[in-house]
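As a warm-up, study this chain.
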Amino acid sequence: MIGQWGGNVSLEIGDYGLVTTEGAANLPVNDQLAFRAAYSFARHQGYLSDGYDDEKQGGARLKALYTPTEDLTALVTLDFEQEGGRGEGSVVKPAIQPSNPWFGTANPQSNALILNSPLGFLLAPVLTDGFQNNKSFGIGADVEWNLGFATLTFLPAYRDSPTNYRTYTPGFAFGVDEADKQWTSELRLAHRGDKLRWVTGLYYFNEKTHFFLPTYQGLIGSSYGSATPYNTQSYAGFGEMTYEIVNGCA
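Now compare it with the structure written out below.
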């Protein structure tokens, strides 16, 4: 908030190497400009015996609020998040070790049970090379201008979300390598009076996606992807008007 200092930090430590922390701070510059920064971080070792079901993520967000006049406000937001580690795992039921329900499928005993089944030659072993490296970066703005008779709002945004991971389920292995970019814009004019309310505007959406999906099941392997990015665009106009003829009933 403009003109107010403040902040908070929290920290949690536990078993499996758990470390979780998050915090935020308000940083006023003057009576027209202020910043707010926030972060989060979480990490723990895998809960399963083969190292899967771990956590490794972090993110940060920065906001800038600028109010040059009483009628004009601009809020700009930047954010970044990354997710790593091995990712989700699985266990075989009935459990190989009944006393250890966290005995992961990538262990040799679990793989032997899968591969020695009647259809084992069609099944892929579960390995310990699973990973995830998923990111998300975004920037957006919310600009509002009071024109007197109505409020003009402009909402531009951009997001880049590359996704890359390999994961296993018993007998099946697959991965994803995807790049996704999105641009959106909305321009809106709205009036809210005692009886008359109306809004009108324009909206634009543009998305480009490029992906590669390798899969493997036993002796059978395949891949699917896009040689060139898929591009989706859409445009829209909207409007609505409401007029209150009679005040609310008792």
